[in-house]
Design goal:
Low-confidence stretches: 408-413
Largest sheet: 8 strands, mixed
Strand order of the largest sheet: 6-7-5-8-4-9-10-11
CATH class of the largest domain: Alpha Beta
Organism: Puniceibacterium sediminis
CATH superfamily of the largest domain: P-loop containing nucleotide triphosphate hydrolases
Structural class: alpha/beta
Protein name: Chromosome partitioning protein
Domain AAA: 137-328
Number of domains: 2
InterPro entries: AAA_dom (IPR025669), DNA_Partitioning_ATPase (IPR050678), P-loop_NTPase (IPR027417)
Number of strands: 11
Strand content: 5-15%
Mean pLDDT: 86
Oligomer: single chain
């Protein structure tokens, strides 16, 4: 008889029913979900506290002279030191040891950048490109498949832009509130989210409709307490400061999800309400697009009303995905849903526009790019090349590598730009940062190109 060479059986054979029953535990109940939620909240608070100071607030780390001159202000280290010595009124930094490296807050770095931008060589880019007289660019990061790095990509792009000198607003449209957590936001209820801005837009529409009804001798439709209260809410009252001096936040929390139920009710009552314009109109009316350079919109992983608002508001749409068949397939379906959704809106609106002799509606974006995230070149190069062949310019040629730095920073409850490079192997830090810097460079090229096209359009219109 030959010996059995198969080795041990897989673990799914010979499971004892009584042992399985003992392992099962009691049946789950609705009340049990509450206990699970409280446990997660306690754990979340514990993890978040690792990035907090003793007073419960997050602070951004300091930046060394080496880091400033390598990544933030394009000057030689020796020249940087000479400029500080010649200008004692500029921030001088602080040393942790006598004669040690100088460290600066980001606020101080921004002041130094402004000085070099005014006094330094005009051939160098000390200040980021930003045409005068044009509004902020709005950037939506979206995909209805979860786990593709959507929130992480949006957060790191916001941090990159802030380090580059732009003033950034981050708007969290996802009721899970992950982006809000990244930036340390505190949101008590839906009235501290974008919800009142959407409600205000509908209330203004309804008020206009009521005026037309009264002009026809008809009774006006009442505004309920929610709509009446929303009329008094300005976007500025929703904006929170973060531990980044030039990143502000409009946060989200679970109650924001009720907007997905409330918006269709408003839509049924007010057929003429252009809900897809709600976010843009309110941010523009409140001066938000003049107060910031870039507005990042983190959308839910679903094509609901909040996502539609974010996509319609955006000038640039970024779609993160992994280099896998399932994510490529899912992203294709996402683009198909975008086509169906926005085509149906255009068709419905333009039927009425043609009948009334008005301009037709046509949604337009400066650029749409898919971005490969969590890329492993040793295993995914062939599939990424195939995706590039099919998507062409739509797929950014830059792939965002997964490096050890990403995992280590995540364990410390930080974005990679928030992590102190001294906590890592220098090579790991430089390599990990390179892939995110390249992601930002690809995005910044889109941003500058879009602004330049707008500026040339204004110039041609004025001639």
């Amino acid at each position: 008889m030959k010996p059995d060479t198969r080795g041990p059986l897989p673990p799914y054979f010979n499971i004892d029913p009584d042992a399985a029953l003992a392992h099962l535990g009691n049946p789950a109940t609705t009340k049990g979900f509450g206990a699970m939620a409280r446990a997660c909240e306690a754990g979340r608070s514990d993890l978040a506290s690792r990035g907090l100071e003793a007073d419960g607030h997050r602070t951004l780390r300091l930046f060394s002279t080496w880091e400033i001159t390598r990544y933030l202000i394009p000057v030689a280290t020796g020249h940087f030191r000479r400029v500080l010595k010649q200008n004692p009124d500029l921030p001088q930094g602080r040393s942790e040891t006598e004669g040690g490296a100088k460290w600066f807050t980001l606020d101080e770095v921004l002041r130094l950048r402004a000085h070099f931008g005014t006094e330094g060589s005009k051939a160098k880019e000390y200040l980021p490109y930003r045409p005068q007289g044009l509004p902020a660019k709005m950037v939506a990061v979206a995909n209805f498949k979860g786990g593709v790095g959507k929130t992480s990509t949006a957060a790191h792009l916001a941090m990159s832009a802030a380090l580059d000198g732009y003033k950034v607003l981050v708007i969290d449209l996802d009721s899970q509130g992950s982006m809000t957590s990244i930036f340390g936001g505190k949101v008590q209820d839906e009235w501290q989210t974008v919800f009142p801005l959407l409600a205000r837009h509908y209330a203004l529409h309804l008020r206009g409709e009521n005026q037309r009804r009264m002009d026809r001798g008809e009774a006006p439709l009442p505004l309920d307490d929610t709509l009446s209260d929303a009329l008094d809410v300005k976007a500025q009252s929703l904006v929170q400061k973060t531990h980044w001096p030039n990143i502000d936040l409009i946060g989200a929390q679970l109650n924001l999800y009720w907007a997905e139920f409330q918006i269709p009710v408003w839509r049924m009552s007010g057929r003429g309400w252009k809900l897809w314009d709600a976010l843009t109109d309110m941010l523009e009316a409140d001066g938000i697009l003049d107060a910031y350079d870039i507005v990042f919109l983190d959308t839910p992983p679903a094509l609901g009303y909040l996502t539609i608002n974010g996509l319609a508001a955006s000038d640039i749409l970024l779609v993160p995905l992994g280099a896998s068949f399932l994510e490529f397939d899912s992203t294709g379906r996402f683009f198909d849903m975008l086509h169906s959704t926005f085509s149906s809106i255009e068709d419905a609106e333009n039927m009425a526009a043609r009948a009334l002799g008005r301009d037709e509606l046509s949604f337009q974006w400066d650029a749409v790019r898919a971005v490969v995230t969590r890329y492993d070149g040793s295993q995914q190069a062939e599939l990424a090349s195939l995706m590039q062949a099919y998507l062409g310019q739509t797929l950014s040629p830059h792939r965002q590598d997964f490096t050890a730095l990403i995992g280590q920073a995540g364990e410390q409850v930080q974005g990679i730009y928030e992590a102190d490079y001294r906590d890592f192997n220098r090579e790991t830090y430089v390599r990990g940062r390179e892939t995110f810097d390249a992601t930002y460079a690809a995005f910044k090229q889109l941003l500058i190109g879009a602004w330049r096209r707008d500026a040339l359009g204004l110039q041609e219109a004025a001639e």
